Amino acid sequence: MSVLETQPPRFSAEEVARIAAEVFGLEGVATDLGSERDQTFLIDDGEAGAVLKISNLGEDPAVLDLEQAAIAQILRVDPELPVARPLAERATYKNHQVRLFERLHGRAGGPDLDDAALRRYGETHARLNLALRSFFDPAAGRELLWNLEHTPKLRPLLDAIDDSEQRRLVANVLDRFDSEVVPRWPKLRAQVVHGDLTLGNVLLDDRGRITAIVDFGDCGYTAQVADFAVALASLIRGRDEADLFRCARIAVDGYASRLPLEPEELAVLGDLVAARLAMIVAISAWRVRRYPENAEYIQLEDDDSWALLRFFDRIGADTVAHELGAPRAAVATGELARRRADTLGAMLTPLTYSEPVHVERGEGVWLYDTDGRRLLDAYNNVPVVGHCHPRVTEAVVRQTRKLNTHARYLYEPLIELAERLLASMPDDAGLDTVMLVNSGSEANDIAWRIATAATGNRGAIVTEHAYHGVTEAIADLSPEEWPAGYAPQHVVRIPPPGSGAETAEEFEGVAALFLDGGLTSDGIWTPSGAEITGLVQSARDAGGLYVADEVQAGFGRTGRHLWSFARYGVAPDIVTLGKPMGNGYPVAALITRRAIVERFPFAGGVFSTFGGNPVAAVAALAVLDVIEDERIVERAASVGEGLLAALSKLKSEEIVDVRGRGLLVGVELARAELAARIVDRMRELGILIGRTGPRDNVLKIRPPLVFGDEHTAILVDGLRQALEGETE
Ligand code: PMP
């Protein structure tokens, strides 16, 4: 027979006072504190006093030893936790196990707990779980109905609920538990837990801080989040419907501040809270039939629980789950696109592809849409080491949990990053100064300001269809963005080096030559070192600096070197970095020489609030680490070679040229409309590529650098199909 079915002990207060004196030598007055299946008494001896617990005859002594061992472990690991200590060895009295615990002081808590108290409650709970993390005791595997894992076993108890509407409420919770929680249960973190950390089992001080944690009677092995759900169900009890989820979330924040919840745990938290409430009323109905004399204690929480179950029923289980952190079901693509158009408009941040890509998650070279379809990403250069690379995401998450602030304070990751970046620059370039910013545009904007200040000139040289960023100054240096007829006087456009067209110009009054090492927006070209060296020399002859814009082609994109400029054999005066730098976390940089910045006249120096913040810095460091560990640069070179060769073998009259370096490859087609159709058709085939060039007729293939030969095969095959579709 289980402890829930065995008759609870029924000693009178006088008898208990005698037990305390006889067994433990403690003389005092006994007062019943109430208990579900045991008897618990306060023994007041006029001094510190104690709490005496007489166990149910059905209790296995091994379980009582488990409680003691768990308490001992908690006090060892986190001695600040106010857990009531045993004051003596467990003893036996008339076949009953009797134990004496330390008496702790405090008040009982309820819905009056304020936000700070709720947060601390969650935090304390997490500490309690953490303290028991490594604890093991075979008795913890005992089967106790109160363990939420056993929620499905409540079904036979439904008969004990007389009211049919109430029965329906509980049955619905059980149905939902079967469908939503049972399949996930095996994936939930589990350990030995207190099992009943409710307001009934803690005492608080005036400020709502926990001063006592008592009653390990439900201690056992279960899902960690189930243990927390028990606490949450207690914390929301008696609260205003309009406020209770807010309160619960604050307690969750407190818990997560010590022990972050996993997605699977958040997915079930709402259903676990509901299950706990259903468990309270179902077990209560069943036990009251057996022990009507203990009805008052057994039914203590019934009214509140029914009220909450009715409320949950009214708003629906999905809403409850979502309020407590479960993700919402994806919005339909059409609806989302409409809402996007309503809020963002068509001009700002336009969508690509005729059929928009509605994505939910990414991994490596793959993106997954909301229908669960995977798309081969051969377009995005930002996730350079693969979408959601664990090294980067974990670095970001860990640092986010620890510290995020700005670069006017000292912290190590920023400095380490700056040192690593400088060390990656050519030895003879004299590049010795780094500034961290947030975007390629910002890096280029500051580069431009520095260049004009340092040279005293105003002129810029850019390639014909260059793109360097969004700021007003840099939009002027980005002919790709110019409206028809727009031609700022200070900007000279040159044909992209490598395209075969001659640059006849002599320059004068130049502040800077901006050059994307991959000539991406110009249609992707592969100039020789001599061409670039010559161009840089002409710019320098006219007084200008050479700004190597590595925002697009940096971080190994073109293979062989980390920086695309390295193969050209001429060192830049300023290097700008961005897009792939944080694998998606916004971080960018500018690298130059001290002598150049010292001519920058702005008072007080330059500062960018988010630039190089600790999280950005660790993201960038993680990217550099992965590039080394996974030999990304070499990989980009060899996979890129294979890609170029495979594309070059494609037979189509529409293909004018195939060119590129590393994993930046362009397939020039005869007509722009055709390129547009091919890009859309590839998207239908589940392969993402883009278009580039002044006529938008060059297919742009620029995947994450973890792209492999197996992905090349898929891409080339898709392109063949798409081109064949055209000629049919
Ligand atoms: N420079 C180059 C070569 C780029 O390709 C881009 C962005 N495509 C930028 C600068 C601007 O970077 P961001 O969008 O991060 O401002």
Structure description:
The protein has 4 domains: 13-102, Phosphorylase Kinase, domain 1 (2-Layer Sandwich); 117-323, Aminoglycoside 3'-phosphotransferase, Chain: A, domain 2 (Alpha-Beta Complex); 340-385 and 631-728, Aspartate Aminotransferase, domain 1 (Alpha-Beta Complex); 390-629, Aspartate Aminotransferase, domain 2. The protein has a 7-stranded mixed β-sheet with strand order 13-19-18-17-16-14-15, sandwiched between helices. The chain has a 5-stranded antiparallel β-sheet with strand order 1-2-3-5-4, with helices on one face. A 4-stranded mixed β-sheet has the order 10-11-12-22. Helix content is 39%, strand content 15%. Helix 3 (115-131) packs antiparallel against helix 5 (224-235), helix 4 packs antiparallel against helix 7 (263-290) and helix 5 packs across helix 7 (263-290). The chain is an alpha+beta fold and 728 residues long. The protein contains 21 helices and 24 strands. The longest helix has 28 residues, at 263-290. A hairpin with a 2-residue loop joins strand 20 (655-661) and strand 21 (664-669). The mean pLDDT is 95.
